[in-house]
Design brief:
The radius of gyration is 17 Å and the shape is globular. The strands form 2 sheets. The chain has a 5-stranded parallel β-sheet with strand order 2-6-1-7-8, with helices on both faces. It has a 3-stranded antiparallel β-sheet with strand order 3-4-5, covered by helices on one side. It is α/β, with parallel strands linked by helices and 228 residues long. It has one domain: 3-Layer(aba) Sandwich (Rossmann fold). It has 9 helices and 8 strands. α2 packs across α4. Bound molecules: 2'-deoxycytidine-5'-monophosphate. 2'-deoxycytidine-5'-monophosphate binds next to α2, α4 and α8.
C-alpha cells in the first residue's frame, strides 16, 4: 500500500519545517512545504507590481505564475516561472505580505489543487508524503493517515525565527521576529477561508521543551501501526 500521508499544521515558527523534513527523511517520504507555495505566489505578486492589499487584483492574476515545488526533504526548493526563488521567498518583504495573499480564496483554491496533485503523483509512484502548512489536516488532506498540530510558546518561536534571520542576513531582532509572528498568526487564524485550526482528530505536540529529534520521534510514534 502506498503512503503514509502525514499532515503537519501549526503556527509560524513552531518547528513544522524542520520536523516535517526530519520525518520525511527518516521514513523516505516526499516533503511538501505548502508555505513555500504561498510565499512563491506572494513573491510573484510583489515582483509584478500587484497591490497585495487588493484581493481582487491578486485574484485576477493568481493563475499566472507557474510554481514548481521540489519535494526532496534533503534539498527542498521552489521555482517560479523556471527561476529558483528559494532564497527570495524568505526575505522580509515576502514575510510581511504573505498572510494577505494567502487569505485570497482564489489563491487558496489554486494552490490547494496543486497540493492535492502532488500527493496524487506521490501515491501513484508508490511514495508517501509529509505535507506541512496551516490547513492540511482540516482542508487539503482530511484523509491523512496522521494529522499533527505542532505548537510552541511564542517566545520560543520568535527566538527560532530571529536565529534563522540572523543566519540568513547577519542580523535578527527578537522583538521584530515576535511582532511578525504574532501579526501573521492573528491574520492566519482569523481569515474567512481555511483559518489555522487544529483538526478534531489531530495529535497535538507542544515542542517548546523538546529537541528536534524528540519532536520527530513523537510524530513517528503517533503513526497508526497499519501504516508504519
Ligand atoms: O509556513 P510559512 O511561514 O512558510 O507560511 C507562510 C504563510 O503562508 C503563512 O503566513 C501562512 C500561509 N500559509 C497558509 O495560509 N496555508 C498553508 N497551508 C501554508 C501557509
Amino acid at each position: 500500500m502506498p503512503g503514509p500521508i502525514i499532515a503537519i499544521d501549526g503556527p509560524s515558527g513552531s518547528g513544522k519545517s524542520s520536523t516535517s523534513r526530519g520525518v520525511a527523511q527518516r521514513l523516505g517520504l516526499r516533503y511538501v512545504d505548502t508555505g513555500a507555495m504561498y510565499r512563491a505566489m506572494t513573491w510573484w505578486m510583489l515582483t509584478h507590481g500587484v497591490d497585495v492589499d487588493d484581493p481582487a487584483a491578486i485574484a485576477a492574476r493568481c493563475d499566472e505564475p507557474f510554481i514548481e515545488l521540489g519535494v526532496d526533504p534533503a534539498g527542498p526548493n521552489v521555482r517560479v516561472d523556471g527561476r529558483d526563488v528559494s532564497v527570495e521567498i524568505r526575505e522580509a518583504g515576502v514575510a510581511d505580505a504573505v498572510s494577505r495573499v494567502a487569505a485570497v480564496p482564489e489563491v487558496r483554491e489554486r494552490l490547494v489543487r496543486s497540493q492535492r496533485d502532488i500527493v496524487d503523483d506521490a501515491l501513484a509512484s508508490g511514495s508517501g508524503v509529509v505535507m506541512e502548512g496551516r490547513d492540511i489536516g482540516t482542508v487539503v488532506l482530511p484523509q491523512a493517515d496522521l494529522k499533527v498540530y505542532l505548537t510552541a510558546h511564542v517566545e520560543a518561536r520568535a527566538a527560532r525565527r530571529a536565529l534563522e534571520e540572523s543566519q540568513r542576513s547577519g542580523s535578527g531582532s527578537l522583538s521584530a521576529a515576535q511582532e511578525n509572528l504574532q501579526s501573521r498568526d492573528a491574520l492566519d487564524s482569523t481569515r474567512a477561508v481555511s483559518p489555522l485550526q487544529q483538526a478534531a482528530d489531530a495529535v497535538a505536540i507542544d515542542g517548546t521543551h523538546l529537541t528536534l529529534d524528540e519532536v520527530i520521534d513523537a510524530v513517528i510514534r503517533a503513526l497508526p501501526a497499519d501504516v508504519q
